[in-house]
Write a structure and sequence with these properties.
4 helices, elongated, single chain, mainly alpha
Length: 131
């Protein structure tokens, strides 16, 4: 059985995007974080006083950009693999920065970090084969 890595990448991008849109919206609509069981005390080591700007960044970079990436992949656009690579870098960077700013690690950081690394690896491998 041949593994379809593009389908795996698209699935990761899709679910990352849905989660980021929902979470980003919740953070922007309730910057205290209470709506999803968080509090601003988590942000003590970050430059943010509340979750509004992290929510906005999450919504745009991981949510909207994932939607664009997924759409380009669905229509087999020539830049789809580049967008998957960029999305992997964004997701990996987001998780890395989050761990540093929160000074803590949750199991979801490992899962999403691994997804970011997989997307980055897939993008690099696909672009290498095009050269």
């Amino acid at each position: 059985m041949k593994i379809n890595f593009r389908s795996i990448a698209m699935t990761i991008v899709f679910f990352n995007g849905i989660g980021a849109l929902a979470s980003g919206y919740l953070f922007m609509s309730d910057p205290s974080g209470n709506r999803i069981g968080l509090n601003t005390g988590l942000l003590i080591h970050s430059p943010f006083e509340d979750f509004f700007f992290p929510g906005l960044i999450l919504f745009v970079l991981n949510g909207v950009f994932s939607g664009i990436t997924f759409t380009l992949s669905m229509i087999n656009h020539e830049k789809a693999d580049t967008f998957i690579l960029i999305q992997g870098i964004i997701l990996s960077g987001w998780i890395f920065i989050q761990i540093i700013m929160l000074k803590m690690m949750h199991p979801m950081h490992l899962i999403l970090g691994a997804c970011g690394i997989l997307l980055t690896y897939y993008g690099v491998m696909k672009l290498k084969t095009k050269v």
